[in-house]
Amino acid sequence: MVFQCGHLTCCKCRFCFSYQDYNKSQQQPKWVMCPTCRQRTDYGNIAYVDDRQEKSSGSDNSPTSQDCEKGEASLAVQGSYGTKLEAVTRRVLWIKFSEPDSKVLVFSSWNDVLDVLEHAFKANGITYIRMKGGRKSHAAISEFRGQNKKNQESTDEQQEPKSIQVLLLLIQHGANGLNLLEAQHVVLVEPLLNPAAEAQAISRVHRIGQEKRTLVHRFIVKNTVEESIHKLNRSRNTTTTSFISGNTKNQDQPILTLKDVECLFASSTPAAEDSEKKTEEEKEASESTSSLRQLPPAVAAAIAAERRLMQNRLPASSPAL
């Protein structure tokens, strides 16, 4: 459904609002208000677009998800870089094979991860460039967009310049303020605690002016803390004030309560089943020590101090007369 102002909306959603207006006024409305700009459009001036023919014509030749999984699994990665980074490299190789003209944004929270990915991409023949911030970031983005091709052709006419297919970015530097409509794929190497940062990273590609289909690839290791982070991220309500205010340096860092930290690092190993035979005191002691060992030193010290404070607040037993 396209209005006179140029905005469009889903027909089903628009008809639901029209039905509600009809029940309130008991009269058939003669115009519809655009939900984006609030401009009125007569019913006779509304255009309808039906894309069922395009979907049906492309469904015969489009590969199924099972075919894509089999094709991706058949690709061999040169070198050994760990399970996750090999999976990321294999996915980029599959995108390069299935969509040669597509570009990919790879986001990570760690410089070390991007260093390893650079070696993996170089060994597997994937053209990439890394944005490290500062003045060189503009040159990296221009090269990723292909704006330096003319200069390369003038300096070296014999060698054809290779188009950059992958842009490596830190989530802290590249998730805000960039317009990268040239890319169609976003790869998130790790799950993020901040849903707003994840949305900003995806918005570098999925924004106004994008004419192609965009895809987001998340990589989460099963039965690890990454799965807990992903679940906590989904359970957070983005409408609530869950971000630190006051300090401008930490505005994008989410507030984590002690309960959130314990949920993130809760152990679900088979050894926990054997501990059921122990007494309640031994069970609590073993769970507390095992959970603290998995935490960073600063977080473990904070949790231990909180537990000691709670124990000191318990009423002391009365002395025997």
TrEMBL record:
Residues 269-298 are annotated as: Disordered. Keywords: Hydrolase. Residues 87-256 form the Helicase C-terminal domain. InterPro entries: ATP-helicase/E3_Ub-Ligase, Helicase_C-like, P-loop_NTPase, SNF2/RAD54-like_C. PROSITE patterns: HELICASE_CTER (PS51194). GO terms for molecular function: hydrolase activity. It comes from the Eukaryota. This is Helicase C-terminal domain-containing protein. It comes from Linum tenue.
